[in-house]
Specification:
The chain is globular, with a radius of gyration of 18 Å. It is built from 7 helices and 7 strands; from the N terminus they run ααβααβααβββββα. The longest helix has 25 residues. With 223 residues, the protein is of the alpha+beta class. The chain has a 7-stranded antiparallel beta sheet. It is 31% helix and 24% strand.
């Protein structure tokens, strides 16, 4: 790996700020668990372990960045940061997939069906053309219904547009952008918890660190 790639992976101040300022909860939006991606990953509707990590930013911080740009930058940081970098996959240059962290684009999302590192597959994406749309997301699935562990990550953006009503004397709330990492895991073979209790604790810390890697990449791209 080149020195430049290693430099991009190193944690910076924004990484640690996000570890401190991000929020988390052991649930996801209902729509995620009933989505097309969830049906593909968990076709038998077995029990799931789910969680969400998120952080809010004022719109000015990410001014000029489209939802696609934010999501692709987050993807690059999530899979290309030092946390995920500790998971080193063997490389097969002949495979029609993305095997190197440097191949993950930062300016646009990959096509649905694209595989990353032979483990993750882009299952679905929703990025409305209208800049005022409240929700954009991209889903990455992993695992298989042939094994006892599978799951899905959803990177999403929720925008709260400013009010255009200039008649009201009530001060309108500042425009905010929420970036979220939602995820669930399941046992596709048996309707039971996919991980032991100790695994839940580790996963919560791991998800928060991966989220911080994604946010670091977004903030660096916004400069």
């Amino acid at each position: 790996m080149s020195a430049r790639s290693w430099s991009r992976m190193l944690p910076r101040k924004s990484f640690f700020d996000t570890l401190y300022n991000s929020n988390s909860i052991n649930s996801t939006r209902d729509g995620f668990l009933t989505s097309r991606s969830a049906e593909l990953v968990n076709p038998r509707h077995h029990m799931v372990l789910s969680d969400t990590v998120w952080q809010d930013f004022d719109a000015e911080t990410l001014a000029g960045m489209t939802d696609s740009k934010i999501l692709s930058s987050f993807t690059s940081g999530f899979f290309g940061g030092f946390v995920f970098g500790m998971e080193d996959f063997s490389q097969d240059t002949q495979a029609p997939e993305l095997w190197r962290r440097s191949e993950v684009p930062v300016n646009e999302l990959c096509d649905v069906g694209t595989r990353l590192f032979g483990v993750f597959q882009l299952l679905d994406k929703h990025v409305p053309e209208s800049p005022g749309s409240p929700l954009s997301y991209v889903d990455y699935g992993f695992g298989s219904d042939k094994y006892s562990f599978a799951g899905c990550h959803r990177f999403s953006i929720t925008r709260n547009p400013t009010s255009s009503d200039k008649i009201s004397e009530v001060e309108q709330p500042e425009a905010r952008i929420r970036i979220s990492l939602e995820g669930f895991t399941c046992n596709p073979q048996t309707n039971k918890s996919p991980v032991p209790e100790v695994g839940k604790w580790f996963h919560a810390l791991y998800a928060r660190a991966l989220f911080a890697n994604g946010i670091q990449a977004v903030l660096e791209s916004s400069r």
